[in-house]
From TrEMBL:
Organism: Pigmentiphaga daeguensis
Name of the gene: ispG
UniProt record similarity statement: Belongs to the IspG family.
Name this polypeptide is given: 4-hydroxy-3-methylbut-2-en-1-yl diphosphate synthase (flavodoxin)
Keyword set, alphabetical order: 4Fe-4S, Iron, Iron-sulfur, Isoprene biosynthesis, Metal-binding, Oxidoreductase
Role this protein plays: Converts 2C-methyl-D-erythritol 2,4-cyclodiphosphate (ME-2,4cPP) into 1-hydroxy-2-methyl-2-(E)-butenyl 4-diphosphate.
EC code(s) of this entry: 1.17.7.3
Amino acid sequence: MNPSPSTTANAEAEPFPAGPAARRPTRQVRISWEGKSVAVGGDAPVMVQSMTNTDTADAIATAIQVKELALAGSEVVRITVNTAEAAREVPAIREQLDRMGVDVPLVGDFHYNGHKLLTQYPECAQALSKYRINPGNMGAGKKRDDNFAQMIEVACRHEKPVRIGVNWGSLDQDLLARMMDENGRRARPWDAQSVMRDALVVSAIDNARRAEELGLLGDRIILSCKVSNAQDLIAVYRDISRRCDYPLHLGLTEAGMGSKGIVASTAAMGILLQEGIGDTIRVSLTPEPNGDRAREVVVAQEILQSLGLRAFAPVVVACPGCGRTSSTVFQELAADIQSYLRAQMPVWRLKYPGAENLHVAVMGCVVNGPGESKFADIGISLPGTGEQPVAPVFIDGQRSVTLKGEHIAREFQALVESYVENRYSKR
């Protein structure tokens, strides 16, 4: 029987490609502070950012949380500037961060009264590295236009970049009503959700162009169109990416708590990033009560690292477990090793450049254990149920040593430390 054409190898065929599409070409925006800067768009890697949830008027608490987010890997941190008290404390927050050696730019998040705060508190306007403006929360009609112009004028005076961030929870109602009316005159009207998505894109681009008319340089503008539904986010960003070349900030607004927020953000942003869309991201997780705000930073990093776009910390491959792995040893070891490696990265990033690309395998039985361990830089195959109480360790694909006894976890961690030092140490 002849094989099916669909399963026959074609000697002339190219291999099916793996990996993300080429990044969408954009302008590049630089966010600067204290003689330093980070780039967004252009040839810069996709950047991770986060936002504090402290009262900005409490300068110490806010500076501490900014430090925690920066240490977790947030490359930009946004703070709320909503009151005169908050605006007055922004320079003190910047000074405190500088004293602590925290090299991260601060972005001011403004709504409703941003035009007043930036004008009345020039020290705040100067201490911030970037402003986030929501045109939908700046009044209506001429008042909105004047308030927007006032904020852009401050940005021009202080030479600050601006993110013009529209949100479907606060979309310009005049624009939306006009576009709904225009839609009603179409021969085949769109559904209301499609009109709203189009209005988001139009609002973002029109406000960016007006900012340029008011004097803000085109390479100081970043755009975002925030929605809370994954499919809407994908549709909106596919659309806006075809209609402008401004860098784009990705993120679901109000993504939610726990696994729901993580899954929704990953599903939406993963597709866009795979298509080359997106220059900076935030995973807007609702923290558990007294939860760790930095979790959203780790999730954002893991999205980018899973897609092969960035490397932030060594990857630990571990099997999910089954009836062969009734022991919890491999689960505990995998968790301990993963926590240990991430905790070491602030030091290793400087001392052992490249260590973030390390692949470690912690496997629980002989089915896939040896094979996965061989594919990793360093891996261990722990004994499963009924297997001999020995754990072979593979280094660079070769069986190196066999660990036994009660101290397997400690001995394997020591082997990982030695491997990192030998492979990544600056010579």
